[in-house]
Design goal:
single chain, 388 residues, Serine Threonine Protein Phosphatase 5, Tetratricopeptide repeat, two-stranded antiparallel sheet, 66% helix, globular
Length: 388
């Protein structure tokens, strides 16, 4: 549908790690720095990574080794450990950094959290990777990295940039894979990973992780929360194979098969809203707007939560020409998630349909304030400004 926020095939042209490593060169330890530091004796035979200026053709700028400082060497080591922690001299570089900067764990942890909160994603990611490289025995940096990647995935998903969201989810998944095999178990990873897998619609895995957290966790509030979510998963039919099969069929583009499974699920669980959502989702993808509308409204009447049912309902209503109702559904979704970029952009699209261009431009600017890279908001705004 042209009016509404659509997916964009995007990806990462180059790995941020490749760019970072291309700025490193290896040098011999200057004589002025070849002295014990905090009980650590540098080895002149081991080359040191240092960061150069902007790169061209994969080579760093030339620099004067005489101007090199211990801090510059530490910066190079941190960057190497962030993106290549398996380097053959990694343990030496870890010892070097910890000797020169004994308080670096606290320093970098606070900086990474601050950058994540301000949505300076790339800087935060490199900081958490650096901490994971410096302290491979510590699970906390890996968990921070997983949570950061999930936050980015959610933002990209809300703005319809599914390729980028998937890439971020893969990074989170990689971090959780490493966390969940640690011995002894790192309990917070099980709790957070459970909600990651719930968002990925892998409810069996989520339930298993929550059950483990109840056994190994030491936070009573989180353990109660885990028990509540487990009970909800059972009551709402998320652990029913019919639900999983219906979702997978629709997600893979086999809507008719998914619709049949979803209707069978409803027969088994007539009071559960999830089945009606799947029926609506399949019908909406098949262009059956009235059937989709009816299913989404039934899901909402049964207590459907989150913005997805409302956003999907608004699409069906708009296609049926019921523009004011579509807008009301989106406004309700926005009250639930005030910073959901997809909803904000779709409200802008409805305002354009209503010929309220100034209001529409306000929605698109708001979306860009939240996600400056959102392509749909930028395209809509440029179109309005061009036509004005």
């Amino acid at each position: 549908m042209d009016d509404f926020h659509d997916d964009e095939a995007e990806g990462f042209a180059t790995s941020p790690g490749d760019a970072a490593l291309n700025r490193l060169v290896f040098i011999e330890l200057p004589a002025a720095l070849a002295r014990p530091m905090g009980g650590f004796a540098p080895d002149p035979a081991i080359p040191l990574p240092v960061e150069t200026g902007p790169v061209s053709s994969g080579e760093g700028e030339r620099f004067d080794p005489k101007e090199l400082t211990a801090e510059a060497i530490v910066a190079g080591m941190i960057r190497l450990l962030a993106w290549k922690p398996e380097h053959e001299k990694a343990e030496y570089y870890r010892s070097f950094v910890k000797a020169v900067r004994p308080g670096i764990l606290t320093e970098l942890s606070e900086a990474g959290i601050a950058k994540a909160r301000s949505k300076e994603w790339e800087i935060a990611e490199e900081i958490f990777r650096a901490l994971a490289g410096l302290y491979p025995e510590a699970p906390e940096p890996l968990l921070d990295l997983a949570i950061l990647s999930e936050d980015r995935a959610e933002l990209y998903s809300q703005s319809g940039r599914d390729a980028l969201a998937e890439a971020m989810d893969e990074r989170a998944f990689d971090a959780y894979k490493r966390l969940l095999v640690l011995e002894p178990p790192f309990a917070p990873a099980y709790f957070n990973a459970a909600f990651f897998f719930m968002r990925r619609r892998n409810f069996d895995r989520a339930a298993s992780l929550l059950e483990t957290y109840v056994k190994v966790g030491d936070d009573d509030d989180k353990k109660e929360r885990a028990k509540e979510v487990l009970e909800k998963l059972r009551q709402q039919g998320y652990l029913d194979n019919l639900f999983k099969e219906a979702f997978d069929f629709i997600n893979l583009g086999e809507e008719e098969k998914g619709l049949a499974k979803a209707e069978e699920f409803i027969e088994r669980h007539p009071a559960v809203w999830n089945g009606y959502f799947l029926v609506g989702w399949a019908n909406r993808r098949l262009g059956r707007w009235e059937e989709g509308r009816e299913a989404f409204e039934k899901a909402l009447a049964l207590g459907a939560d989150g913005v997805d049912p409302l956003n999907e309902l608004s699409i069906c209503l708009l296609e049926l020409g019921r523009v004011p109702e579509a807008r009301r559904a989106l406004e309700r979704a926005l009250r639930a998630e005030p910073e959901n970029v997809k909803v904000i952009v779709n409200l802008g699209a409805v305002a354009v349909r209503q010929d309220k261009l100034r209001e529409a431009a306000g929605f698109f600017r708001t979306a860009l304030d939240i996600d400056p890279e959102d392509p749909a908001a930028r395209t809509w705004l440029e179109r309005i400004e061009t036509d004005s």
